[in-house]
Amino acid sequence: MSIFQFDHVIDRSLTNSIRWDKYGPGVIPLWVADMDFQPPEAVIQALKNRVEHGIFGYTYASPKLKEVIVDYVQRMYHWKIQPEWISFLPSVVTGLHLSVRMLTDVGDHLLIPHPAYHHFKDAALGAQRDFSAYDMHLRNGRYTFDISQLESLVRPQTKLIMLCNPHNPGGCVFTKPELETIAQFAKKHQLLICSDEIHADLILDEGIVHHPIGSIGQGVEQFSFSLMSLNKAYNFPGMGMSWLICPHPEIQKKIMKDVHTLIPNPNLFAYDVTQAAMEHGQEWHSALIQYLRQNRDQVYQRINAIPGLSMAHLQATYLAWIDCSAMGWPDPYEEFLKAGVALSPGAQFGDQQFVRLNFGTSSKILDQALDRIEKACRQ
Question: CATH number of the domain that 295 lies in?
Fold first, then answer.
């Protein structure tokens, strides 16, 4: 039995929680990517230590933190990086938007995944850049891209291709051959590659390995970069910190140009909790993955047993992508909300006939939500 109490239900109501306070009592909120679990004790202790010190002045990332990240990336992904490749940002979302604004110009064209986390599209729209969406097709039970479609979408003005790996909301983990195909495509067309890898430490399938884009060889590190964070995997998204791994100094410099002016640095607590999680959180994290795997299997079995609903097997993340098209509803999100379950609407990711379910919660709450979903579909 795990010593970590993931089954323990913590009341998050009236705590200014975006997730729990938005819909109020009577609705089970399984939407935004924010788990219901306390982080490792080492993370909580790191916060206590900083608070007890009592001084909260301007703070920078210590050289030690970069050394810890270098060791962590080597241990987790077998990628040997250099400390000078690392830069700090307040969030991966910030990195997505900066990448588009700083590495492309008005008139340039981007390639973004579909369906996908809405900030890929928002980054293009916010920067007033033209873009085309490449489809993530369900093939052999997992979502992946079609290189022939990418070839059909590329233009002379295309400058950047954006990846989401592991994919949100599809939950697939790109294989090394798939990433090599992307790298060859980008090199052929002289494109930069921006890879959102925030879910890299939420791989649920045993034997599956996350490959950062810069780790695959072929010189891809000279035209690619990764955006990473422990905010999701160790459940402290409110702390706000990510890091950019960019081996090419000129690309790194362009992305980071507005940090400390328009863009703030991470806060002092974020540095401390990230280092604590990397150095002392592995036992907790291993137990978390086991618990999420059980929840994933529970959602998969129950959803696929409900006529009108289906979901593919999920290799990673705690976010189930559920196909409701056979129900014939104009808006599945609204139907489930009326039944007392708040999910993320599929329209946010590019397909209104889907919903995204966050199973990063206790099995008790998850059971209650699945009962309501089943009842809504059988009425």
Answer: 3.90.1150.10
